[in-house]
Design a protein that fits this description.
The chain is built from 21 helices and 20 strands. A hairpin with a 6-residue loop joins strand 1 and strand 2. The strands form five sheets. It has a seven-stranded mixed beta sheet with strand order 12-13-14-11-10-16-17, with helices on both faces. A six-stranded mixed beta sheet has the order 7-6-5-8-9-19, with helices on both faces. Strands 3-4-20 form a three-stranded antiparallel beta sheet, with no helix packed on it. The N and C termini lie far apart (75 Å). By secondary structure, it is of the alpha/beta class. It folds into four domains: 44 residues, no CATH class; 230 residues, 3-Layer(aba) Sandwich (Aldehyde Dehydrogenase, Chain A, domain 1), CATH 3.40.605.10; 192 residues, Aldehyde Dehydrogenase, Chain A, domain 2 (3-Layer(aba) Sandwich), CATH 3.40.309; 43 residues, no CATH class. Helices cover 43% and strands 15% of the residues.
Length: 613
């Protein structure tokens, strides 16, 4: 005999299952609800949506160059850097690891930018009326496509940015999927009305903050993670009901067409206007036009402090809000009580992930004096053993490349100048330190420097390359470590490793940064419920977490009557014209009633009100 439990309506379709299975489902759901802190009814409704509404499969036609590793036969670019200023009417695209020409894209000007922003603004009107279920379904459709085409997305990322496919999977695909998962599970809750206490004087009122779409979000994305950096703000922008217009970097423009088609296909398969998402290609003029466009309600910029200041200046005349994520020189601290074998892998991943082209990558490695010699003896052979080369399979290196190319050609000059300056001022070069002459592309050898001092440029300026900078913490002093770490204009992320978590937390709490991790690295960004951003030269504002999602919205304060028929009235004593003998005494008595901390004071307030009625 099959028994049944009184399942809630969203799970009514499970009534045909045996009681024991129903009970197991409810126990699992209840446990998960308690774990994530969600109301059971809300969680059951969300789970039912995921169980009974399956996202469709979308087809995104690929160009030959996108679908295979040997589909591009373009001639190598002799000097890609020279093409940027000279070809002002189009963007030249090339593979930084082979210098192979990939194609061109239009260099959009003001008129084109404003036309696409107008399309986005028009489409946003209908998109803002969609339900959270509809928005989740679009994101789930994107997620489904990503999971079914992981290798292809990694291949395209590798060709356009020169990174190994594993780095693309970790930094591009995994982070994007986690962003979608987190927003789908938590986004609706984060954007619910936030009810606020009203105080005794307004006890007859209900007050809350609501989060409504801003309209059109303008995104200026960097070049280090072309897939994730574009999808990141599309995900949060669409979920919060906005249109998103993204200006992609001129250095990673080629892949943007494919990534945009994925999003548009997901919108179209569900009957939505795909104009709600637009992609801009071009140079500085294109970015400036986006910032200045009157149809754009907010700018989200990721890049250098120098360009960030220009973006902020462009927003200023129209008082347009902006979020600036401006990179950093993140510290990683190894205290004297760590085990060398345990921390070496973290130093390697922190410094050489994506060839060091990470805004929250490790740029300063603080090693306590008593363990530095052992650390260098362990780390230098590991760095020398890194395999550098062309990531895609066409060159026969698939899976055999640890360190890829530099995306921006000018970055090679910057890294070389910083390393040379450090060596000239006394730093010790253990390996690397120059361009990789055995490869044709934009490669800089994995490098290790020690003995760095504050007068060296590399101690203060962002490297954004495969360079491990080891700084000695003298006398194993925690206080001196904190001083050295904070002697920097940047403040994005930070991490401290110690056998004592209490000690690690104590050091970390004294570091001036937007993010901190103890005995781990980079996980802040994989916990998408946490806001991402920094302080000082690393910028301001946040994306990710409820703070980032709400930053896509207008926060409106709402007050309404709590009970029908009971409204605020202006007493006759303070109505215009104010009663000359009663107005001030009446108001002072009112203040005593509500704000005096003693019963006698409140009683005197009541008496005063009665006297002046």
């Amino acid at each position: 005999m099959i028994m049944h439990l009184p399942l809630p309506a969203p799970l009514g379709a499970l009534n045909d299952l045996p009681c024991i299975i129903q009970a197991a489902i409810l126990i699992a759901v209840t446990h998960f609800a308690v774990t994530v802190g969600k109301p059971l009814t809300a969680l059951i409704s969300l789970l039912a949506e995921f169980i009974f509404l399956s996202p469709p499969k979308i087809d995104v036609p690929l160009a030959l160059s996108e679908s295979s590793d040997d589909g591009v036969k373009g001639e190598p670019m002799s000097n890609p850097q020279l093409l940027i200023p000279s070809e002002s009417d189009k963007v030249q695209c090339w593979d930084p690891s082979t210098l192979q020409h990939l194609g061109t894209a239009p260099a959009m000007g003001k008129e084109q930018v404003e036309a696409l922003c107008a399309k986005a603004a028009k489409a946003q009107k209908s998109w803002s009326t969609t339900t959270y279920t509809q928005r989740r379904m679009v994101l789930r459709t994107i997620q489904k496509y990503i999971l079914e085409h992981q290798e292809g997305i990694c291949r395209v990322c590798a060709r356009d940015s020169g990174k190994p496919k594993v780095d693309a999977l970790l930094g591009e695909v995994m982070t994007t999927c986690e962003k979608i998962r987190c927003i789908n599970v938590n986004g609706e809750e984060w954007l619910q009305k936030s009810y606020r206490p009203v105080g005794p004087m307004m006890m007859h009122k209900t007050a809350y903050v609501e989060y409504v779409p801003l309209g059109v979000l303008g995104v200026i994305a960097p070049w280090n993670y072309p897939f994730h950096n574009m999808l990141n703000h599309v995900i949060s922008g669409l979920f919060s009901g906005n249109a998103v217009v993204s200006k992609v970097s001129e250095h990673t423009t080629w892949s943007a067409s494919y990534f945009t088609r994925i999003v548009k296909a997901a919108l179209e398969v569900h009957g939505h206007d795909s104009d709600v998402v637009q992609t801009l290609t071009g140079f500085g003029e294109c970015g400036a036009a986006l910032v200045n466009c009157s149809l754009v309600d907010k700018i989200i910029f990721t890049g250098s402090p120098a360009v960030g200041r220009k973006v902020m200046s462009g927003c200023a005349p129209n008082l347009k809000p902006c979020i600036l994520e401006l990179g950093g020189k993140d510290p990683m601290v190894f205290c004297d009580d760590v085990k060398i074998k345990d921390v070496v892998p973290w130093a390697m991943r922190g410094c050489f992930q994506n060839s060091g082209q990470n805004c929250c990558g490790v740029e300063r490695l603080f090693v306590y004096e008593s363990i530095q010699s052992k650390f260098l003896s362990a780390i230098v052979p590991k760095v020398k053993a890194l395999r550098q080369g062309v990531p895609n399979a066409v060159c026969g290196n698939d899976g055999n490349v640890d360190c890829g190319a530099m995306i921006m050609p000018a970055q090679l000059d910057i890294i070389e100048a910083l390393v040379n300056d450090a060596v000239e001022k006394g730093a010790k070069l253990h390996c690397g330190g120059k361009r990789n002459s055995s490869l044709k592309g934009q490669f800089f050898e994995p490098t290790v420097l020690s003995g760095l001092t504050s007068d060296m440029r590399i101690s203060k300026e962002e490297v954004f390359g495969p360079v491990m900078c080891v700084i000695t913490v003298p006398n194993d002093s925690d206080d001196e470590c904190i001083r050295l770490v904070n002697a920097c204009d940047f403040g994005l992320g930070s991490s401290v490793y110690s056998a004592s978590q209490e000690r690690g937390m104590r050091i970390g709490n004294a570091i001036k940064s937007g993010m901190f991790t103890v005995n781990d690295f980079g996980v802040n960004y994989l916990i998408q419920s946490l806001p991402f951003g920094g302080v000082k030269e690393s910028g301001f504002g946040r994306f990710a977490g409820p703070e980032g999602l709400r930053a896509c919205c207008l926060e409106r304060s709402i007050v309404k009557d709590r009970i029908w028929g009971i409204r605020t009235a202006i007493p006759s004593q303070i109505d215009y014209p104010i009663e000359p003998t009663q107005g001030l005494p009446f108001t002072m008595s009112l203040m005593k009633l509500f704000y005096s901390e003693s019963l006698l004071g409140k009683l005197m307030g009541i008496i005063g009100l009665i006297k002046n009625m």
